[in-house]
Specification:
The chain has 398 residues and is of the alpha/beta class. The protein contains 16 helices and eight strands. Bound molecules: nicotinamide-adenine-dinucleotide (NAD) and fe (ii) ion.
């Protein structure tokens, strides 16, 4: 038996933020970061003014958030007792809000309310807190607005561990996709966050848990992202913002999240999460190359599925093997076109740091849920080899 979990509502398109002015909330708790507060929070406040809701703003979320900041926010939630949490920002903000909520609901569990999260446990978040979750993503990347995962860093041990925790109740009640919010995205984030979304489409489609429902979302998301990321990226070089293109990217990022959240991600994300934590590399900077490695590693196991992805974007080839090889070539070309790194060295990882961390990096990668759902089995020795090649950006030949 399988199930497919979705948000109750997806509001999308131009002026989507106006939806908020029609809601009746008593107390809204906004989770955001300093950049979003400065750039766009006024747009949200304008809409909420009409509702007369009391507003509390928690704007301290850093990039790649830690369990500690989540604990701080949870305390504030317990004090203010809002009836709506609005996460307004990128994946870091949304993941933080998704972490705070179960901590607020079960204060007796402390940090275990997150670290001990079981995907299928009945948390009764809404009943216990009388609150709902509204996500308003601003990066066109993570899809965290509709996934049941929260990716947080635990920096209490020597090798920082970034891990994904989840429960189906963390899927938002409402996600609001307003492309206007993406007009300020820097070019590097259009590329990096875009590649995160593209990696979700690839991982979710190749996963051993892929199903008919996730396939439908992920194949189309893959196409929309592949076509529109480079266009938006190059337009941004001259300051041009085309909202039709931005809307496609924003919708596709959510579709990717929606799909992979119901089919899992694979080796690329197991690697991406781990190196992000251990070497302090933002997810949006490392995930594209990690995805390229996942395509190369899985080519022999699921060339039929990789060939589907290739056909979707018009890549040609006489056999599924040729289509796979051609997509992998094109994937590397795209990373270079978007100025994204293809090796750990290019991401700033020194040989000393690599040698010092690699053992725990491999242990953490093996234990990441992305390893479990990878289509081609992968063990410790395989990861030793993959990481050796990845350090230099060499193409896999095994
Ligand atoms: N929960 C999930 O399912 C999931 C999936 C993928 C990634 N993640 C996690 O999400 C985090 C990364 O999120 P992200 O890539 O969205 O970046 P982010 O949230 O860390 O934001 C990066 C930077 O961009 C700024 N920013 C955000 N929106 C902007 C806009 N519209 N204009 C200008 N600047 C803007 C932010 O203020 C921040 O400084 C990582 O921790 C990653 O592991 C979670
Ligand atoms: Fe991701």
């Amino acid at each position: 038996m399988w199930d497919f979990t979705s948000p109750r509502k997806v509001i999308f398109g131009e002026d989507a933020l106006e939806y908020l002015s029609e809601k009746q909330f008593k107390h809204v708790f906004i989770v955001t970061d300093p950049v979003m507060r400065k750039l766009h929070l006024h747009l949200l406040e304008e809409q909420l003014k009409a509702t007369n809701a009391e507003i509390t703003i928690f704007d301290e979320i850093p990039g790649e958030p830690t369990l500690q900041i989540v604990q701080k926010g949870a305390k504030l939630l317990a004090e203010t007792k809002p009836d709506a949490i609005i996460a307004f920002g990128g994946g870091s903000v949304m993941d933080s809000a998704k972490g705070m909520w179960p901590m607020w609901a079960s204060p007796e569990d402390g940090i275990d309310a997150i670290e001990g999260l079981n995907p299928f446990e009945d948390l009764k978040l809404r009943e216990k807190t009388g609150c709902i979750l509204i996500n308003i993503p601003t990066t066109s990347g993570t899809g965290s607005d509709v996934t049941w995962a929260t990716v947080l860093t635990d920096n209490s041990s020597e090798t920082e561990r970034k891990a994904s925790f989840g429960n189906r109740e963390l899927v938002a009640d409402i996600t609001i996709l307003d492309p206007i919010l993406t007009k300020t995205l820097p070019r590097s984030l259009i590329a990096g966050a875009g590649l995160d979304a593209l990696s979700h489409a690839v991982g979710g489609y190749l996963s051993t848990w892929a199903n008919d429902f996730s396939d439908a979302l992920l194949l189309h998301a893959f196409k929309l992202l592949w076509i529109n990321i480079p266009i938006a990226y190059h337009q941004a070089e001259t300051g041009e913002v085309n909202f039709e293109i931005r809307e496609k990217l924003h919708n596709a990022a959510t579709m990717s999240g929606w799909g992979f959240s119901n089919s899992q991600i694979i080796l690329g994300h197991a690697i991406g999460h781990t190196i992000g934590g251990a070497f302090k590399i933002p997810h949006s900077r490392c995930i594209g190359a990690a995805c390229w490695y996942s395509l190369m590693y899985n080519k022999t196991s699921v060339s039929d599925r990789i060939a589907d992805l290739a056909r979707t974007i018009g890549i040609e080839g006489k056999s599924k093997e040729e289509l796979s090889v051609n997509l992998i070539k094109e994937f590397k070309r795209l990373l270079i076109e978007l100025n994204l790194p293809v090796s750990l060295q290019e991401m700033g990882v020194t040989k000393e740091k690599y040698d010092a961390e690699i053992e725990s990096v491999i242990d953490y990668t093996l234990n990441d849920s992305g390893t479990l759902s990878n289509p081609r089995p992968v063990d410790y020795e395989d990861y030793v080899k993959i990481y050796e090649y990845f350090f230099e950006g060499r193409e896999l030949d095994f």
